[in-house]
Amino acid sequence: MSDTALPVVSANAAFTAPNGPLIATGDLHIHVGGAEPLSQPRASFCRCGASAKKPFCDGTHRTSGFVDAGEAVPAASIAELTETGPVTFTPAPNGPLLAAGPLTVQNAAKQTIATTTRAAFCRCGASANKPYCDGAHKAAAFEG
Ligand code: FES
């Protein structure tokens, strides 16, 4: 293991693809408006705000001009998660992608930047704190 390869501490993980989506793997439950959440092992969530298939990526980031290398730095300390089980993703109307459940968050280099049981990820592309939401969707008048 190299100095920068930190251990994955949750079966569920999400990493930021450079200039592209948030890619999640694990036991995912995704609420997209139906009565039951989608249960799947992998999903690509739009981070650029331009997908026609929100909350999922449809590849539009390649032509939308979205730029984020996914170079978020690891938190000063990363706790080991004791929780197990699924992580749910719910897109807040015109706002962030809300995650609830044990999750390891990684940057584009697959370095663990945080572990969490609750997070709000930017979906509009305008946050200055990517991959997390900083409220910029309001000024950006994000719809989706
Ligand atoms: S990140 Fe792929 S369409 Fe938005």
Structural class: mainly beta
Q: How large a portion of the residues is in β-strands, by DSSP E?
A: 25-35%
Low-confidence segments? none
| Ends distance | 40 Å
**Main sheet summary:** 6 strands, mixed
Whole-number mean pLDDT: 93
Shape: globular
Question: Which molecules are bound besides the chains?
Answer: FE2/S2 (inorganic) cluster
Radius of gyration: 14 Å
Helix content: under 10%
User: Count of helices?
Assistant: 2
- What's the number of domains? 1
Order of helices and strands: EEEHEEEH
Q: What's the total number of strands?
A: 6
Outline the fold blueprint:
Blueprint: E1 13-16, E2 22-30, E3 38-45, H1 61-64, E4 87-91, E5 97-106, E6 112-121, H2 136-139
Parallel strand pairs: 1-5, 2-4
Antiparallel strand pairs: 1-2, 2-3, 4-5, 5-6
The structure holds FE2/S2 (inorganic) cluster.
